[in-house]
Amino acid sequence: MQTSSPLSAATKDSMSLEITDIRKSFGRFPALKGVSLTAHEGEFLALLGPSGSGKTTLLRVLAGLETPETGAISFRGEDLLSKPVRAREIGFVFQHYALFRHMTVANNIAFGMRAKKGVARPSAKQIRARVSELLDLVQLSGLEKRYPSQLSGGQRQRVALARALAIEPQLLLLDEPFGALDAKVRRELRRWLREVHERTGLTTIFVTHDQEEALELADRVALLREGQLEQVGTPEELYHNPQSAFAFEFLGDSVKLDAEVSGGVATIAGFSAPVQGASFNGRSAVYARPDSFTIAREGAGLPAEVRSVLLGGADARVDLTLSTGELAEIRIPYEIAKGFSASDRVFIAPRELRAWPEGSLSQI
Amino acid sequence: MSLDSSRDPTREGPVVAGVVIGIAVIVVALVLFLPLIAVFAEAFRSGIEAYVAGITEPDAVSAIKLTLTVTAIVVPLNTIFGIATAWAVTKFEFWGKSALMTLVDLPFSISPVISGLIYVLVFGAHGWFVPQLDAWNIQIIFTVTGICLATLFVTLPFVARELIPLMQSQGTDEESAAATLGAGGWRTFFFVTLPNIKWALMYGVLLCSARAMGEFGAVAVVSGHIRGLTNTMPLHVEVLYNEYSFVSAFAVASLLAFFALVTLAIKSFLEAQFADELAAQRRH
Questions:
Q1: What is the C-alpha separation between B253 and B103, in angstroms, rounded?
Q2: What is the pLDDT of residues A39-70, one digit of tens each?
């Protein structure tokens, strides 16, 4: 929009969206227990969390589709909560698209423009031009006369996005944008959505339960858990420096081991290794990524017995029974895995172990 | 033994199919088709002149007019009520919602005669509101107003009942989407909600019309059978029949049956014309 105006210059690189202590419950179920979060102008932010974590509720609160009990939201210095949904100028893409089923693709996209009042309302000619421009953007030119029921899931998704963009929103919200699509279409659309974001420069927030999607798409990821913000950071920060066992487990596969921690060293069945983040002593769960293990027939490591070796896929998977009786699944390169088979006795050693105070003692 | 590969595994054998179809055909013929034929046969028994005389006689004409007038008043009112109720019940959460849904169904479960009696009790000669109504010089029982009220009550559920399941299955996502796109309540209703429910609405309106024209019990209680004034078609048929004017009675009855058939024909026509759209929108 007006990139030269002093306002946008001032808001650039500052917090554009500020969410403060939002609380919302449905009946007796608290969906959001005081969430505070900020987004920069032009940022691509992911709200990640398991189902029931409150991520969709937060998105709907932003759009005005839910009213929070307490809290404040300011957007470019304006109070957003005092505005009704239709005055917020927020583009919302629904999980199941919510396309108007009796309208053609073109009429779906034009709906928001036609709903504008007075001078803000574009002429029929302008609307037509904008619709075809948006159809270009979402790569659906030629389908303007189709009805939603005549489109594939991926196409519907793109119509929904075009419809949301048609009102020239100040903020774009997407609820599980790829939730209902198959894996291949998902990956294509993901890349494409990133491109659209770069082209429009819109501050965009999307909800997902898929960590891979969040890590791949977003500038920053906000991890939610049971209505509270667990951690916010860049994908790199979140993946490599998770602040809790929950974050570690949610952001990727993990191996959880029961250990005795003392002086920053974890001891599991006679095998000892340094553990990050263990500033406490006592019994605790320690964690490692499945691909951070080395495996050998002898040497230092945790004794284990191979249960099965799966050689399909980029990395081979080895299922093990540890000498402590726990089960673990690790991933190692195919060439190495080839040399092992069921009931082999082996030693495995993690390159990196992590622990968090919350996992200590009784919480195992 | 050879396997008949062309046979549909979900199909019953010819004997079972024959018996089931036979029962259905006999029932339909006996209870639906035969009486319908009888109505028209009786109506034309003494020739076309007697038939025409039966339906052009002043009392008959006034009964036809009254029935059409009542229908024209009641159906739009119930359409508005039905849409408003269905909209409220399916798009919003509020206290007392299930009570409202039960109340909407009440006319289905109460005998129409009782509905009529309720109006007599409330508005009749010794009714609760009579002193007040007399003061305003308003009479309800034995007038067209009373007939309209009774018919309104009896046909209350038709439109709402037709819309509620459909609107429930459609949810509120499209309305939410319209709101985020900047549309106000009326715009959302006329451009998003109404087009999505138009076929169910049409169906409900047709059923409501058919019932409004044919209602007997409730109307019989409140109308007072004043010939030329408060006699609707079904009441007129009864009066004629009791007076042994069979030809006239059946002539008026045949006209009423004809109206009902027209309603059905319109419905079938619409269903055939827009089969695809209906299939996409209806639940079953």
A1: 32
A2: 999 999 999 999 989 999 999 999 999 999 99
Distance CA A108, CA B178 (A): 10
The nearest alpha carbon in chain A to B174 belongs to A98
Cross-chain residue pair A92–B177, CB shorter than 8 Å: yes
Q: What is the pTM of this model?
A: 0.80
Interface predicted TM-score (ipTM): 0.82
Q: Contact A111/B183, CB-based, under 8 Å?
A: yes
pLDDT on residue B123: 84
Residues of A with CB under 8 A from a CB of B: 63-65, 85-92, 94, 96, 98-103, 111-112, 115-116, 149, 163-164, 166-167
Beta strands A345-350; A293-296: pairing state: antiparallel
Q: For chain B, give the longest Cα–Cα distance.
A: 89
Q: How far is C-alpha A27 from the geometric centre of its chain's CA atoms?
A: 27
What pLDDT, in 10s, does the model give residues B220-230? 988 887 887 88
Which tokens belong to A200? 């429009």
Own/partner contacts of A177-185, CB < 8 Å, gap of 24 or more, are: A177/A93, A177/A95, A177/A206, A177/A208, A178/A208, A178/A210, A178/A213, A179/A95, A179/A208, A179/A209, A180/A95, A180/A96, A180/A153, A181/A153, A181/A154, A181/A157, A182/A153, A185/A153, A185/A154
**Which residues, 6+ apart, have CB-to-CB distance to B257 below 8 Å?**
B36, B39, B40
Higher pLDDT, B201 or A187: B201
- In 3D space, the residue among A211, A298, A201 whose CA is nearest the CA of residue A248 turns out to be A211
**Given this model, what pLDDT does residue B132 score?**
79
Q: Which residue has the tokens 């002093």?
A: A6
| A6-36 pLDDT tens trace | 444 444 446 789 999 999 999 889 999 999 9
Mean pLDDT of chain B: 87
Do A112 and B183 lie within an 8 Å CB cutoff? yes
Where does the pLDDT of residue B268 fall: very low under 50, low under 70, confident under 90, or very high at 90 and above? confident
Give the gyration radius of chain A's Cα atoms: 25
